[in-house]
Amino acid sequence: VDSALVYAEIANHEATKIGHKYGIAKSLLIFCYGFNLYGFHNRNNRIDNAANFSKWGVYQKQLFDIAGQIDDAEIWGRTYSLQSKLLGWQKKEKESEEALKNALKWFRKSGDELSEAAICTVIGYTYSGNGEYENAFEYFSRALEIGKKLSSKAGPDDNSTELVLYGFMNMADMYEAAG
């Protein structure tokens, strides 16, 4: 993670210097992903995450600012997805869920079905974990539908067939939990 953040800092500096907004956005995404990974490291080593989350929040705010300037659906989707992760770490479940739904909206708009399926799966887990099985069913079904579609076109190096496997497992787990 440390080396990724060093390269993200260099990329951010260079992109900022020449005003390359997509470069700035991509480097900010890497910063946020890196701080997400630090969260796991810190938790596993019983290190307080407050400073980590504070830095992440600064980069997240910058990411929202630049996303608004370039108005790219894929960047918006990733921005909201990362916001959801930060809010989840901060135990702000309702806000995290809202950010996930915003990410889903933007991934649908961008046509990134793999990310759409991933977000649908996470939202499905959220609803299932809260005992809201009908809502979970809707999202798990959509993820499974996308998985089937993508796997039917999958090449030998494509891992989208895993979406189908996870989709069936999630549906089975949900039915078992619902009784």
Secondary structure blueprint with pairings:
Blueprint: H1 2-18, H2 21-44, H3 50-70, H4 73-89, H5 93-110, H6 113-129, H7 133-152, H8 161-178
Helix pairs in contact: 1-2, 2-3, 2-4, 3-4, 4-5, 5-6, 6-7, 6-8, 7-8
Summarize the structure.
This protein is mainly α and 179 residues long. It has eight helices and no strands. It has helices at 2-18, 21-44, 50-70, 73-89, 93-110, 113-129, 133-152, 161-178.
Describe the structure.
The chain is an all-alpha fold and 179 residues long. The protein has helices at residues 2-18, 21-44, 50-70, 73-89, 93-110, 113-129, 133-152, 161-178. Helix 1 packs antiparallel against helix 2 (21-44) and helix 2 runs parallel beside helix 4.
Number of helical segments? 8
Largest sheet: none
Radius of gyration: 18 Å
**Which percent band covers the strand fraction?**
under 5%
Global outline: globular
Entry keywords:
85% helix; mainly alpha; single chain
